[in-house]
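Q: What would this chain look like folded?
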Amino acid sequence: VRNFLPRRRIDDHKGRRGGVLIVAGSKRYRGAALLAARGALRAGAGLAVLASVPEVLNALAVSLPEAISEPLDTPGSLEAVMRKWRPRCAALLIGSGLDRDDRARELCRIGAQWDGPSLWDGDGLYWLGEEDISPARCCLTPHEGEAAALLGGRAPVRDRFEAAGALARRCGPVLLKGYRSLVVAPEQTPWIVPRGDRTLAVPGSGDVLAGACAALLAAGVPEEKALALGAWCHGAAGETLGRTRGRDGMLAHEVADRLPAVLKELNGAC
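A: My prediction, written as structure tokens:
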């Protein structure tokens, strides 16, 4: 995965690092959006622009002032936000904590018009399965339950390789989350991510992972490599916390905050 790292220069400015537009959060699920933005910034994004409801953005101003707020007064306002930030944001992350109401459905339909790489997570995956939505360039980060729903079944996934491959052929590169996550792209041999343990089995862990992968997409890393690198770093961060502080009781934001040290070790530089 060291070979998947984005190329950085000592004189990089934030515009060269790549920006992520994050469409996430709802009145009911506020933390997911904040954790996704934190994951993106901790993975090296130059900009994290969070488009969400006021309840989420009010919390963002306190917990993560480094991120940029864009209020979504109505679902239709997302179109203007996308036009505004497309020149500075190379990737879209959509779905974390978005909920499953009519507002979320419309946001996903509009988000599918994004013409760059997009990452669909959480409730965004739900609406991909429920609606006739076909993003131009997307990758997915489902857990096994979400993968089963996307494939039209209610029963748990029995063959993870087969399920991930079917989703990849249908939608694009897939990170099937779980112990030893899988990364599968169309017509590619699956990759097994050898990092991560139960330390990561906490609320919000997947939101951090989605943000990290989106940051790597925004830095120009190809989709399947961004998913693999993001999952590897996320897993390594969890393992390190587990060894040093214990595998039980970690919080998702602590995993995000460990990502810079993992990236430093991979880069082999200060």
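The chain is about 45% helix and 15% strand.
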